Amino acid sequence: MTFDRSAGLAETARALADGEVSSRTLVEQALARIEATQPTLNAFRLVRAEAALAEADAADRELASGARRPLLGVPVAVKDDMDVAGEPTAFGCPGEYPPVAEDGEAVRRLRAAGAVIVGKTNTCELGQWPFTEGPAFGATRNPWHQGHTPGGSSGGSAAAVAAGLVPAALGSDGAGSVRIPAGWTNLVGIKPQRGRISTWPRGESFQGITVNGTLARTVADAALLLDAASGNHARDPHRPPAVDASAAVGREPGRLRIALSLKPPFTAVPARLQPQVRAKVVELAEKLAALGHHVEEADPPYGQIGLTFVPRATAGIAEWVADAPFPALLDRRTHGAARLGKLLGGPPLRAARRAEAVLHRRIGRFFESYDVMLAPTTAAPPPPIGAMLGLGGFATDRAMIAACPYAWPWNVLGWPGVNVPAGFVDGGLPVGAQLLGPAGSEPLLVSLAAQVEAELCWYEAWPPHGVPAVHERLREG
């Protein structure tokens, strides 16, 4: 039986368990695809070719012995802010970083599920921006249009999955950094509840606003990776009750009350939803209504939520900069954010942390009237490569807020959100929409996303620089 090389995570795991393909074959193919696209897409900061092949051989021996684990032998990738034993964790920064001694908890759990980690994907410097470019590695490009960014900061993971280099990947989301690149590359991106996937060895990443999440072409694959990576280190401060995301994929969500929220939360600089993106989100809302859900326009009472985000984000940057082995090489904007983080790291940070409970109560009341909120993931399609790279700090912030004003409030709240593809604009650029819920609502969001996916089948579309084109080039080469 011929195995489809463009199969997703769940199908790949099943084929391995059924003996239709070997892990070594899959890993060799993944490595060949990465090598073929690295000069153009540039999705990976580091490729673990020798180590991954050795791990694939070990997985094949385990499979042959009859052992079964959820992802045994499946090649996946992780973002380069996650520790992989024996490899550096540069987090988008320039300089030669030393190898770390131990896996981070999320990576440890992926390995426990049997996954083979083929490499670490590119991210912008300390994950600050919605683009994946920098002097440390160049520019990561969007498989749908190489002149545009795949987004950030998990842009390398998004590019790798969208192009079919790996069936799924981990990213991290501190202000939309999983959902934004998922939206801009036609992927499903799950930002889970804070603590669902451990960020250890940092118990709280960026003062709790950053969580690890999953990117995949289908809801089922994103949920499977979420389940495999979920769980806590013994010293994690956030330990939410366990959920079974995969079980929710095949479960009908029931008739839901859905709030369509098109108004950006308050920001210090203007943000406007571009008409072509608005039209796609409204189309998705109409599809949800046609599926039997009650959909109406309503905006949550965000208030001045932005005042609680800035101290936490900038204090988190200051913490990472303090640990950087080559601070002189960091971007001037990084140093500016770190200086602000030090200024805000006392009483303003403590006030921002205290305000979270107030926000939970106020916005939680919104979810007494609605089950799920639908909002744009971004206000604009993916910008061209280089559009934000050379800007100063304030100009970068303005451009970032103009393009991406919708995702970050859920990082302050620590609640789950799922990006679903919403279609294409401007001649083929993907955009997305967010399904957002209160604490612990991943199963409901996953169930609703799977229902929409069954109607729209977004996974059937491949980008011009995806797996079919890559395999053609490999045959020619």
TrEMBL record:
Documented EC number(s): 3.5.1.4
Protein name in UniProt: Amidase
Molecular-function GO term, any one: amidase activity
Gene3D superfamilies with a match to the protein in the record: Amidase signature (AS) domain (3.90.1300.10)
Domain of life: Bacteria
Domain Amidase: start-end pairs: 26-445
UniProt cross-references to InterPro entries, sorted A to Z: Amidase, Amidase_CS, Amidase_dom, AS_sf
Pfam families: Amidase
UniProt record similarity statement: Belongs to the amidase family.
Keyword Ubl conjugation recorded: no
UniProtKB keywords: Hydrolase
